[in-house]
Amino acid sequence: MQARTHHLPWLQAGDEFPPVEQAWGAGSEAPGLLAAGGGLDVDTLRRAYARGIFPWFSSGQPILWWSTDPRMVLPTAQWRMHRSLRKTLQRFVLDARCEVRFDTAFEHVLQACAGSPRPGQDGTWIVPSMVQAYAALQRAGDAHSVETWVDGQLVGGLYCVALGKAVYGESMFARVSDASKIALAALVAFCRHHGIAIIDCQQNTRHLASLGAREIPRVDFLRHIGIAQLEAGPVWRFQPLYWREVLTAPAEST
Q1: Separation CA 179–CA 213 (nearest Å)
Q2: Residues 231-248: b if buried by 16+ CB within 10 A, e if exposed
Q3: CA dihedral 233, 238, 244, 245 (to 10 degrees)
Q4: Cβ pair 87, 253 in contact under 8 A
Q5: 106-114 and 128-139 are packed helices; what angle lies between their axes, rounded to 10 degrees?
Q6: Distances in Å between the alpha carbon of 219 and those of 15, 20, 84, 203?
Q7: pTM of the model
C-alpha cells in the first residue's frame, strides 16, 4: 500500500479525529484516507472504531487512519455457504478432534495473520506496533480471536474488534484448506445467535463478496454502529449449539 501523507491532518497523541467526511474520496490515490499520526493505544483505537475509522499502514509509514465510503459489510443474515464448505463444516462439527475456540491464542492468531498478506500486497500491514496494539485491545476486552483447532493444533482463524454489538472483522489466516472459512462461519453463527446484524469488512474483496458481503454507504454504516455499540455485548465464548445458525439454512451451489 502506498499513500502520501501531505495535505492530511497530522494527529498528535490524544487528538480528536477529523470528521470522516473529510476522508479522501473516490478518484483520489488513496480513497478513504482520513489522517496520519497519533497513537495506537487502547483509548485511541476505541474512539476510532466507534466512529468507523481504522488504522492501516505498512512498515516504514506513519500510522494512517481510514474511513472508506462505501463500506464493505457482511450482513450475517445474508451469509452464503457454498455446498463444498457446508460438507467440510459438517465433517468438522462431527469430528471430536476439531473445535472452535475464542480468545485462547489471540497473539498466535495475530502473528499468523501478519504472515498472510492481503491480496495485492507484497508485505504485511500487521506490523509489530499493530500486534502490540491489538494484543492490548484484546486484554482490555475489545478484541477477540476466533480459532480453528484440529488435533490440538491451531490451523486457522481470524481476529476482530467488538464494541457492544458492533463487530469489526480485521484479518484471517489458514494453514489448512478452509480453516479460515470455518472460523468465519463460526463468527457468523455466533453473531446470528446473539442478534448481531453485520460484521464490518472495511474494504471490498471478491472473496468476501462471494460469501455474501456487500457495500453500503458510509452514512448507513455509521448509523448502524452508532446504535449497535451501545447495546450490551455478548459473552465471547463459542458453544457448539451455535452451528445450527449456519447449518440449517440451504447451502449455495458450487
Answers
A1: 19
A2: eebbebebeeebbebbee
A3: 30
A4: no
A5: 160
A6: 23, 10, 36, 15
A7: 0.92
Per-position DSSP letters for the chain, written without gaps between them: -----TTS-EEPTTPPPPPGGGS--TTSSSTTEEEEE----HHHHHHHHHTT-EE---TTSPPEEE--SSEEEEEGGG---BHHHHHHHHHHHH-TTEEEEESSSHHHHHHHHHTSPPTT-SS-S--HHHHHHHHHHHHTTSEEEEEEEETTEEEEEEEEEEETTEEEEEEEEESSTTHHHHHHHHHHHHHHHTT--EEEEES--HHHHHTT-EEE-HHHHHHHHHHHTTSPPPP----GGGGHHHHSSPPBP-
| CB distance 56 to 1 below 8 Å | yes
Q: In tens digits, what is the pLDDT along the chain, a chain of 254 residues?
A: 444 444 799 999 989 999 999 999 988 899 999 999 999 999 999 999 999 999 999 888 999 999 999 999 999 999 999 999 999 999 999 999 999 999 999 999 999 998 865 544 444 578 899 999 999 999 999 999 999 999 999 999 999 999 999 999 999 999 999 999 999 999 999 999 999 999 999 888 888 899 999 999 999 999 999 999 999 999 999 999 999 999 986 656 54
Burial of 151 (0-12, 13-18, 19+ CB in 10 A): exposed
- Other C-beta atoms closer than 10 Å to the C-beta of 196 total 21
